[in-house]
Amino acid sequence: MKNPAQFICAMIVFAAGGVLPAQSQQPDSQAGLPLPLPSFVTDRPSAPLPSPTVASPAAPTAEPPSPALKENPLNTLRAFEPAADSEYHLGRGDAITIDFSGRPELQAKLVVGPDGRITLPLVGDVLLDGLTRPEAGKAIETAMSAYYSNMTVQVSVTQYTSNRVLVLGAVEHPGVLTFEGQPKLLEALTRAGMMQKDTTRSGQLPEQCAIYRGNDKVAWVDVRSLIETGNALANMRLQRDDIVYVPSAQERFVSILGEVQHPGAVSLMHNSTVASVLAEVGGITDHAGNNPRLTVVDPASGTSQEIKYADLMNPAKSLEIKLKPGQIIYVPRSGFFKATYVLERLTPMVNVMTMMAYAGIL
Asked: Taking a C-beta distance cutoff of 8 angstroms, is the pair 205, 227 a contact?
């Protein structure tokens, strides 16, 4: 095809799956003239044009599900905390007094045994563990009904010793603590005492602790944050046989590597930020340059994130990320100092080569 227009038209026809017009029928006299756009000819019969239709209303499409809202952690803690007016349940070790109406000679002062039972004359063992005081009175009445009729029994607690909480972890006095009344978190932590090596500059309480209840419940409490915000959940009520675990500060740390003054591990606080942990290690070195791109690596998830140092230090940009234990913050060496490093290594070699050339060795 001599005519560019003819070639373009032919390519359009070919791309559309049509048949090129016969070249032999093209007069030579028209070779230099632009060809009209050829009609598309196919082997398939052309389909009739669709008749105009009135657009029907579009069927309603299902709206995308709205993103699920995450439950407020404070609401989770409130649900985990037992009610303030919850009725006391007898437990092993509690000292009780049993009064029998109209029969003062039957009064008994007993201690609930390790098996949760007491022993009474005539009736033998009665299980009281886990019962409220009225329920315990009914259980004793039922046990003695074979010997006494129309008897009313009243049970009172003279010494609460079953309110036990186990405190473990980074504390000076790990073990079982017994409470006269309902156990509370801050009292348990204060009595257990923080280990000196884990003591922070801001006080004698841990940043965080876990409360284990039974075999399937656990709640993490940000003690320091709750205290600083004045939230009463910092001293939340505990249940009998709760286990309070205080993690060591060494278990919550991030690693700072690269061009910083003192690379290594930095313990995480509840309000730790990238800027604050950089300050902990003395800041970046001159070899990092004016605006290095810091990389925050999370080995647990296999992800990483880059942050410009200038953006990090600019309060107007409010650029921060939530740090998690085990993360690695890397500050690279700037390109200028990389080149300087190479030159420093090359210079002695160049001097040796020059001396060898003067000596005629090379």
From this structure: yes
Euclidean distance between CA atoms 40 and 16, whole angstroms: 8
Q: What is the pLDDT of residues 211-249, one digit of tens each?
A: 999 877 888 888 988 998 899 999 999 999 999 999 887
Token code pair at residue 204 = 């004698």
Dist CA 274 CA 331 (whole Å): 11
CATH number at residue 258: 3.10.560.10
Return all residues near 132 (Cβ < 8 A) that are at least 6 apart.
87, 88, 89, 90
Judge contact between 227 and 234, C-beta under 8 A: yes
What's the helix, strand, coil split of the chain in %, to 5? Answer: 30, 25, 50
Confirm if 96 and 156 have CB atoms less than 8 A apart: yes
- How many domains are contained in the chain? 4
Residue 356 banded pLDDT, cuts 50, 70, 90: low
Residue 53 lies in a domain: no
Structural domain range at position 276: 252-331
- On whether both 176 and 140 belong to a single domain, the answer is no
Rounded to two decimals, the pTM is 0.56
- Cα dihedral across residues 221, 227, 233, 237: positive or negative: positive
What's the rounded Cα separation, in Å, for the pair 287 and 300? 29
With respect to residue 66, please indicate whether it lies within any of the assigned structural domains: no
Do 131 and 199 lie in one domain? The reply is no
Q: CB neighbours (10 Å) of residue 229?
A: 11
Q: Take residue 245 and report the two structure tokens written for it.
A: 């675990």
